[in-house]
């Protein structure tokens, strides 16, 4: 199942990079997280590193994360673009799934660089290029 999901993710990524069916965003490659190094999607902790949905760009990307975790774990997280406690708990469930596939992710409820790349590796990219 993991190899199939990876293959499907790769095919979708190629189609997205070619601009077939989805608009192109500013990222240079499909597997680039849309945040600066050290930043993450998570509960607002008052620092500039946490992105919880206060800007329209963050809301757009958090909705994608919410769709990914709903498809991977079926926790019924509202797709509202806000990173609240329900989304954090859904991310933790998703991180547990990624860990079961051998991905080296923390179980912290934050959707940062490592969770993003692990999701991409397993075919759950969630972001367009």
Q: What does the secondary structure layout of this molecule look like, with pairings?
A:
Blueprint: H1 2-17, E1 40-41, E2 50-51, H2 56-73, H3 85-100, H4 113-121
Parallel strand pairs: 1-2
Helix pairs in contact: 2-3
- The coarse silhouette is globular
Spell out the helices and strands N to C. Answer: HEEHHH
Q: Kindly state the mean pLDDT as a whole number?
A: 80
Strand content: under 5%
- Largest sheet, order of strands side by side? 1-2
Radius of gyration: 14 Å
Distance between the termini: 25 Å
Give the tally of β-strands.
2
Poorly predicted parts: 12-28
Structural summary, described in words:
With 129 residues, this protein is mostly helical. The protein has helices spanning 2-17, 56-73, 85-100, 113-121; strands spanning 40-41, 50-51. It has a two-stranded parallel ribbon. α2 packs across α3. Mean pLDDT is 80; it is low at 12-28.
Brief overview:
This protein is mainly alpha-helical. It has helices at residues 2-17, 56-73, 85-100, 113-121; strands at 40-41, 50-51.
Give the key terms.
129 residues; mainly alpha
């Amino acid at each position: 199942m993991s190899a199939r999901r990876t293959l499907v993710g790769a095919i979708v990524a190629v189609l997205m990079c070619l601009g077939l069916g989805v608009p192109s965003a500013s990222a240079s490659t499909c597997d680039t997280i849309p945040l600066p190094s050290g930043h993450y999607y998570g509960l607002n902790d008052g620092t500039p590193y946490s992105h919880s949905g206060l800007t329209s760009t963050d809301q757009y990307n958090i909705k994608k994360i919410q769709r990914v975790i709903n498809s991977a774990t079926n926790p019924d997280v509202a797709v509202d673009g806000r990173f609240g406690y329900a989304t954090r708990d859904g991310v933790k469930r998703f991180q547990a799934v990624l860990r079961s596939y051998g991905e080296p992710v923390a179980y912290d409820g934050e959707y940062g660089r490592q969770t993003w790349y692990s999701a991409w590796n397993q075919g759950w990219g969630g972001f367009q290029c």
